[in-house]
Every structure is written in C-alpha cells, then in structure tokens.
Amino acid sequence: MKNKLQLHGFNNLTKTLSFNMYDVCYATGDDVQKYIDYIDEEFNADRLTRILTEVTEIIGANILNVAYQDYDPQGASVTMLIAEEPVTVAKPESVVAHLDKSHVTVHTYPETHPRDGISTFRADIDVSTCGLISPLRALNYLITNFETDIVTVDYRVRGFTRDVDGTKHFIDHTIHSIQDFIDDEIKSEFQMVDFNVYGEKIFHTKMMLRNWSLDDYLFGDLSKDYTAAEREMISGRLKHEMEEIFYGRKLPKSPGHKL
User: Fold this and answer.
1) Annotated catalytic residue: which of 94, 107, 254, 257?
2) Annotated catalytic, 25?
3) Which of 77, 107, 140, 204 could form a disulfide with 195 if both were Cys (CB 3.0 to 4.6 A apart)?
4) pLDDT single digits (tens) 126-148
5) Is pLDDT of 6 > 70?
6) Domains of the chain (ranges plus CATH)?
C-alpha cells in the first residue's frame, strides 16, 4: 500500500457492482411448480442473507443492519447496510455517514414460460461501497455460488474525492475490464463479451456458459426418457432461451422449436 493516495477527509467515490445471474431449466406438468418450489427454498431469505454476509466479509466491510423478506407466491429480498469501518454505538454519526452509499442487496425472480416448458430463475445483486473497499472482490464468489448459466455484470465508479492538495480524483484504482477480476478457470467456462465506456467509468461484461449437458437442465426427468427428436427440441428451446437472455433481445426460433 506504499502508493496509497493521501486523501483530504473521507473517500467519497462510490463503486457499484450490479450482478445479474440466470439459471435456466426445462420442466413440464407438475414438475414446473416443483422446480419453482425448489428454487424458492434453495434461495430463500435465510440463505441469501448468509451469501450476502459472506460477500460483505470478502470485500472487507462491516454489517450495520439487515432487512430480509420472503414473498408469496415466490421470491425473496435481502438488504444490508454496510460500512468500511467497524461502527460502535458510541459514534452513531458514523452510521449516518454510510447509509446512503454502502449497501448490499439481492432480489430473486423465479418465473416460467406458459407453454414452452422453460423455467428461469434470476437473481439481481447490487454491491455499492464508498471508501477504499471494492465490490469487485466478490465477483468470483458470486459467480460460483449461484452456479449460473448467464451472467451480466455492470460496474461503475461515481462521484469524486480530493487529495490533500485539493485535486479531484474521479477513480482511485486501475481497471480496464471487469474480466480482469475474474479467475481464469471461471472465464474458460464462459463465452464473454465486454462493453466499456472508460471516460465515464462504466464497465459491462456478459457471460454465457460454453458447454452444458441436457441432463443438467431437466427437472424431474432424464434425457433418456425422451426420444431423439424431443431431446433436440428441448435443447433448442434451452439454447434459444439462454441466447435471448445473453443478447438481450428477441431472436428467431429454430424450425424444430415447436415440436
């Protein structure tokens, strides 16, 4: 830390990481509701709280307050107010200084297609920090902990801070791409695309799993339970769903999609 920037007062830069993950599944009949129930239990508010607690520890922050809620018929939310420094009751003003900038949130969205047998689980996670702590440290943990099929990540640095001479600094760390903060082993598993606006300190990365097995996407069945034509149709629907999410737009369906 010998090159640490000497600041005047508090570091007012706000660093925000928005992490969106998608899990795709094929289920029909009664298995559709069973999948939703499974996801709802697997990622309930209690588990999400544990995940965000781990995220907070990874980035080196301290939890000030936790609010969580499970929803009917499905979904959950957790919000944590966090601070760079430990906070004691003796200094309540320290809490106020961080409330509007440092937080970790997660919201889940399980949903199903009414006809195609496709079910999709989405989790939106935002990690926003001020000071020296960086939300980028949590990237690898989030990607592996949710076992994602598609990931979109946005990172932005807002505001400015001053050094002791009064000079404004609009960023206090070097970054060329979000991918620089993702382990090589994880990157090898995904197709990845970058969109960056360096002058505005805005960074965006999209990721889609390269290789997958049909059995990993069938809920309640095995691929051997289907004919070759059915397996091709299901694989096509899954691939189409993932590609539409990855590219963020409606795409034409393959000829065998409606079998």
Assistant:
1) 107
2) no
3) 204
4) 999 987 788 999 999 999 888 89
5) no
6) 14-223 (3.60.90.10)
